UniProtKB/TrEMBL annotation:
Annotated compartments: Cytoplasm
SUPFAM superfamilies per the UniProt record, alphabetical: Acyl-CoA N-acyltransferases (Nat)
The protein's name in its UniProt record: Leucyl/phenylalanyl-tRNA--protein transferase
Annotated GO MF terms: leucyl-tRNA--protein transferase activity
Pfam families named in the record: Leu_Phe_trans
Catalytic reaction list: L-phenylalanyl-tRNA(Phe) + an N-terminal L-alpha-aminoacyl-[protein] = an N-terminal L-phenylalanyl-L-alpha-aminoacyl-[protein] + tRNA(Phe); N-terminal L-arginyl-[protein] + L-leucyl-tRNA(Leu) = N-terminal L-leucyl-L-arginyl-[protein] + tRNA(Leu) + H(+); N-terminal L-lysyl-[protein] + L-leucyl-tRNA(Leu) = N-terminal L-leucyl-L-lysyl-[protein] + tRNA(Leu) + H(+)
Family affiliation: Belongs to the L/F-transferase family.
Protein keywords: Acyltransferase, Cytoplasm, Transferase
Enzyme Commission identifier(s): 2.3.2.6
Organism: Psychromonas arctica
EC class (word): transferase
Role played: Functions in the N-end rule pathway of protein degradation where it conjugates Leu, Phe and, less efficiently, Met from aminoacyl-tRNAs to the N-termini of proteins containing an N-terminal arginine or lysine.
Gene designation per UniProt: aat
Lineage: Bacteria, Pseudomonadati, Pseudomonadota, Gammaproteobacteria, Alteromonadales
Amino acid sequence: MSKQLFVLSPDDVYFPDPINSMEDPEGLLAIGGDLSTTRLLQAYQQAIFPWFSEGEPILWWSPIERAVINPAQVRISKSMAKFIRHTSLTVTINHAFTEVINACAIPRKTQAETWISPAIKNAYKKLHKIGAAHSVEVWDKEILVGGLYGVNIGSVFCGESMFHQQTNASKLAFIALCQHFSRYQGQIIDCQMMTPHLESLGVVANTRDDFIEQLTQYKNSITAKSCWDKQKITLL
């Protein structure tokens, strides 16, 4: 029996069980609702995230495969380790959230458009303002050259997007996030969908069921507030 797309009510933040997500397109669970902070946090706590193009209705996804990493197990190649030892680039947390999400929204060379619409940017800026969304920045002196942003749920960090304007800058941001989050007993970083870039850094393909089990275990863990204070990250 084929599965049907759920239409969300604008009056509450209920989400259907992710097991009901569609097979084609794979992982699509629901349509509609809004991008309020309450609804977004409810979604992330259930392994659901929004992804849609500008002009489309809001689409909510929970793919059957999930790309995740234990931050303590980030993989650093020999060439990247050498780069880290010699680079003059610096890495910070929460110094430039708006600039990072704006940079992530610029379409890649292979893309005609971006899914990070003005509505998405505004929604995640609100999450940042309440201390739920965070950015990692890579700087070449005073110039922002790479970074990433995402949402923190307990001891789980749900990565949303990353960018680079210099070679290795996004890798540096990801490795810095892993090392820093691990120091604060972070357990899982959710990368949503696997790419060769993420796989090279040690990200593995997990099942949605296993990810939901991990999320249930860790989403109520308390991460020290100082984890997300504005600060510089020193890489090991």
